[in-house]
Task: structure prediction
Amino acid sequence: MRDSNECWEWRGTKDRYSYGRFSLDGKKEKAHRISYELHVGPISPGQIVRHKVCRNRACYNPNHLLLGTDKDNQLDKIEDGTNWRNLSYIKALEAKFLRGNGASVRNIAKFFGVSTRAVYGQLSQL
Result:
């Protein structure tokens, strides 16, 4: 039996953003969304499932998930410091240094907890 307070780390396939993914009836689904629907209830149009408790994209523990809007999710990122825009200039330079020394954009994104798109955008501005 799983501890209701720990992260339930998805061990299967993950997408490029580290979200658990699988196919259900021929459609690709995110594990945390299906977990939310099974344990909590339906997700209304315009709503997203946020990783509010742990910010671990591979976690599908329904106790760590909260329904909200994209704006709520962006505010969560600002609050916990995982929003790329909140990275200090020093951290942006660190990302540039890592890239210059052979680190992949994907690994840099994982390191800072942001999307690869955000890394490309930030690097293009330095």
Summary: The two ends are 49 Å apart (CA to CA). Residues 21 and 69 are 21 Å apart (CA to CA). The chain has a mean pLDDT of 87. The first strand starts at residue 21 and ends at 24.
